[in-house]
């Protein structure tokens, strides 16, 4: 198989990577839009909570079924269908004249994101040239952060418009999905998927039994990755959803300043994501993982020890964002592509995303009660989680990669070694 050209490779990474932009941007957009629409559309307190949980729950459902569909039907086809579904869902929210319109819209958006994330990541990895797969998958994590920054930046300019501001924010997400859909028609189907399908003789489910995913060969990586991702994603999700809550209700910072501090900390995580892209295909990603895992423990442990203030929360978010670039969702995305054969790759990732989002949705329900009891309790819980995640990732998942022969994905740091030799000459 001929190696893809560099422009084609970037196109096949950036366009599917917009799904990560939509994933992050939709979470932020929905949290702001529902506040702006709450009074005009008559959303009750119970309705607000249900709509917030509906997005995450729908994502979990979409991830469970979408990964499987992607492995059976192909990456490009499913990617285009899920974008069309997202656009329809966003349209329901934009034209909503009462709260009832929001339910089908948010459900469609959540399912579409759940289908699209594992599908897009598989398309990125399978379209990248050897020695650049991790880098291209890592690009999606950078776009995820850009999605947060772009949405927050837009929100600062339109939130004061009330319901119109909510519709502008949702229109922004709809526009990104439409651009991805149009550009997506120019993508090629994953050659790796087509070859694996041809080797199996058929794309029918009877030829690709789901039970194989739970056999000894694949069950170990599935369990280890699900455990790792749940343990790192729950703290990250809690930080994303409740950072402003901690700023305002515990640290005593006004909402405007809290938003500004949150926005200022995001570029630090983006820098980490760019560094990760450079080393994602090299052996140096392993010591970087250790550094990232330690930084996450330090980040969440800081306010647990020193108390919650505007600066401990700020440094918690900044340090966790930088460390998470090396030992968080970015490395999980790479591992999930490496550890599973092509015809089960999206199915496995859909399973891990589904379980993780389900657990984080449930934890989010009780988080305010834990904070009300004692914020330190919440912080120690998530500090323990990232500590265990570091152990699981460092000693279980990475060892699985070496034992199963996926480490050949890693390439020697030849360029860096050559520079070192030249400087020593």
Automatic annotation (TrEMBL):
Gene3D superfamilies: MFS general substrate transporter like domains. It comes from the Bacteria. It is a multi-pass membrane protein. It is found in: Cell membrane. Keywords: Membrane, Transmembrane, Transmembrane helix. GO terms for cellular component: plasma membrane. Residues 9-401 form the Major facilitator superfamily (MFS) profile domain. Its main location: membrane. InterPro entries: MFS, MFS_dom, MFS_trans_sf, Sugar_transporter_CS. This is MFS transporter. It comes from Demequina capsici. The lineage of its organism: Bacteria, Bacillati, Actinomycetota, Actinomycetes, Micrococcales.
């Amino acid at each position: 198989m001929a190696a893809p050209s560099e422009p084609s490779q970037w196109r096949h990474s950036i366009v599917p990577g917009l799904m990560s932009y939509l994933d992050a941007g939709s979470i932020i957009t929905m949290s702001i839009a529902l506040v702006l629409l709450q009074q005009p559309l008559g959303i009750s307190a119970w309705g607000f909570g249900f709509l917030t949980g509906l997005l995450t729950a729908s994502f979990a459902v979409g991830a469970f079924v979408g990964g499987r569909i992607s492995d059976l039907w192909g990456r490009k086809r499913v990617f285009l269908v899920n974008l069309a579904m997202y656009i329809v869902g966003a349209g329901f929210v934009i034209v909503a004249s009462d709260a009832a319109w929001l339910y089908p819209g948010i459900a469609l958006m959540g399912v579409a994101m759940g289908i699209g994330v594992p599908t897009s990541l598989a398309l990125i990895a399978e379209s990248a040239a050897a020695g650049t797969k991790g880098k291209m998958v890592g690009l999606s994590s950078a776009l995820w952060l850009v999605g947060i920054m772009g949405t927050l930046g837009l929100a600062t300019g339109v939130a004061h418009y009330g319901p119109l501001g909510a519709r502008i924010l949702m229109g922004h997400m709809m526009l990104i999905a439409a651009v991805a859909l149009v550009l997506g028609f120019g993508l090629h189907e994953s050659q790796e998927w087509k070859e694996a399908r041809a080797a199996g003789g058929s794309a029918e489910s009877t030829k690709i039994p789901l039970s194989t995913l739970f056999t000894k060969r694949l069950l170990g990586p599935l369990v280890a990755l699900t455990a790792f991702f749940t343990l790192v994603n729950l703290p990250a999700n809690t930080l994303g959803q409740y950072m402003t809550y901690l700023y305002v209700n515990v640290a005593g910072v006004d909402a405007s300043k809290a938003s500004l501090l949150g926005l200022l900390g995001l570029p630090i995580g983006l820098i980490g994501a760019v560094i990760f892209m450079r080393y994602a295909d090299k052996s140096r990603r392993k010591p970087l993982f250790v550094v990232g895992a330690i930084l996450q423990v330090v980040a969440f442990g800081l306010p647990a020890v020193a108390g919650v203030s505007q600066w401990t929360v700020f440094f918690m978010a900044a340090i966790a964002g930088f460390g998470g670039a090396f030992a968080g969702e970015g490395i999980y995305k790479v591992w999930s592509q490496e550890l599973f054969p092509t015809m089960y790759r999206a199915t496995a990732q859909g399973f891990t995303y589904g379980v993780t989002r389900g657990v984080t949705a449930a934890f989010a329900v009780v988080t305010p009660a834990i904070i009300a009891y004692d914020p330190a309790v919440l912080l120690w819980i998530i500090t323990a989680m990232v500590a265990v995640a570091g152990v699981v990732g460092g000693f279980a998942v990475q060892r699985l990669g070496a034992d199963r022969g996926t480490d050949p994905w890693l390439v020697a740091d030849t360029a860096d070694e050559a520079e070192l030799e030249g400087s020593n000459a």
